Amino acid sequence: MALVGNMISDAFHGSASTVNYILFVSAFSMLTLIYLFAASISESFMVHPALMFLVDLLNTIFIFCGAIALPSKLRVHDCSNEDYTSRNSITRDAPNRQERCREAQAVTAFLWFLWATFLASTIISGLGLRGSMVDMRGPRPGRRTRPSMSQV
């Protein structure tokens, strides 16, 4: 988030919409991470297991979109090539275009790591949601249930 904020603050005439989107994704994931952390520790914060799954899924989708959009606009190239950085929509509005190009490459790498962690979290939340949904369905009609040991 700090790298993206630095990219935005260094821009001359405003930053590219892709960079602004990456800042939104970073802020959204940090804010929702507070909820996810609290809901993981205490069930009183977890309104419903589906909400945790939904938040994880939104983070995964948003981060994936950002991790695709930034390198597609950056068109990973040689950051020391002045001709390339002066024409690129991500790097052209910065006083030090080579530094901004390297920051954008670093942000791309961080986004992919973040996406992998949120994907794992989404899978874990989905498995937890699946387990809670099985309990909520109850016995199926036409199927005999056997009493548990405490009922015998």
TrEMBL record:
<dbReference type="InterPro" id="IPR008253">
    <property type="entry name" value="Marvel"/>
</dbReference>
<dbReference type="GO" id="GO:0032126">
    <property type="term" value="C:eisosome"/>
</dbReference>
<dbReference type="GO" id="GO:0005886">
    <property type="term" value="C:plasma membrane"/>
</dbReference>
<feature type="transmembrane region" description="Helical">
    <location>
        <begin position="50"/>
        <end position="70"/>
    </location>
</feature>
<protein>
    <recommendedName>
        <fullName>MARVEL domain-containing protein</fullName>
    </recommendedName>
</protein>
<dbReference type="GO" id="GO:0072659">
    <property type="term" value="P:protein localization to plasma membrane"/>
</dbReference>
<feature type="domain" description="MARVEL">
    <location>
        <begin position="1"/>
        <end position="124"/>
    </location>
</feature>
<keyword id="KW-0472">Membrane</keyword>
<keyword id="KW-0812">Transmembrane</keyword>
<keyword id="KW-1133">Transmembrane helix</keyword>
<dbReference type="Pfam" id="PF01284">
    <property type="entry name" value="MARVEL"/>
</dbReference>
<dbReference type="GO" id="GO:0070941">
    <property type="term" value="P:eisosome assembly"/>
</dbReference>
<feature type="transmembrane region" description="Helical">
    <location>
        <begin position="109"/>
        <end position="129"/>
    </location>
</feature>
<feature type="transmembrane region" description="Helical">
    <location>
        <begin position="20"/>
        <end position="38"/>
    </location>
</feature>
<dbReference type="InterPro" id="IPR052649">
    <property type="entry name" value="NCE102-like"/>
</dbReference>
